[in-house]
Amino acid sequence: MALAPVPQPIGVFQSFIARQTETIVLKEKVLSLSGDSFSIKLANGTPLFQVQGSVLSISGRKKVTDMAGNHMFDICKEHLHIHTTFAIKDPSGRKIMEVKSKFALLGSKAIATFVSSNGKQEELLMKGNFFDTQADIVDTTQGGIVVARIDRKILSGKDIFFGQQTYGVTVAPGVDMALVAAMCICLDEKNNEK
Question: Where does the secretion signal sit in this chain (predicted)?
Fold first, then answer.
């Protein structure tokens, strides 16, 4: 399923802006000793990122690296908020994006705010269905266009026995695949709290 290109690039990591409609696959690593860890690849199998969880972290810190081992950012749960809130921080600890859940009668809802590399303030709304098997990520600053679509495979044998989650995410041309992957991991973390 192709998504329309966005009018202006959206994202922070220029080298991970989708050039065409891309599908990325986030797969939770089973039996990981370090907590929730993920491998993130393109649908054709090309590896993009590694996500390493930390068992001893109160904030559930996850370190995201590219395939060359470069530390890109960390995903941390922030405490003392009414709604579940995650901070995406660069290696120096500076917050580059915040993902905050919002109350939704059915399904889940979260808003990601950040400043794109072009200096524009961005707000992406992630809205999932009742079972959180699908979610659209919509750009509220560019007329509500869908910039990514998450589709989770529901209850495969591995999911039942190992608690493994797999997400397929279609990303529109011009959108940062790294930040979309970070939003998906935040959704997974929030769902794990239920």
Answer: none
Distance CA 94, CA 154 (A): 35
Residue 29: give its domain's CATH number.
2.40.160.200
Show the DSSP H helices in the chain as ranges: 157-162, 177-193
Cβ-based neighbours of 92, under 8 Å, separated by 6 or more: none
Domain count for the chain, please give it.
Answer: 1
* pLDDT digits 0-9 by tens, 87-146: 999 999 999 999 998 765 556 789 999 999 999 999 999 988 766 578 899 999 888 899
| Structure tokens that stand for 18 in this block | 């989708």
Partners of residue 100 on adjacent β-strands: 85, 111
Q: Taking the complete model, does pTM exceed 0.70, yes or no?
A: yes
Best CA proximity match to 183, nearest among 75, 89, 95 = 75
Let me know if residue 6 belongs to a domain: no
Q: What is the C-alpha separation between 122 and 8, in angstroms, rounded?
A: 11
**CA distances, 175 to each of 17, 23, 51, 192 (Å):** 5, 12, 20, 26
7 is a domain residue: no
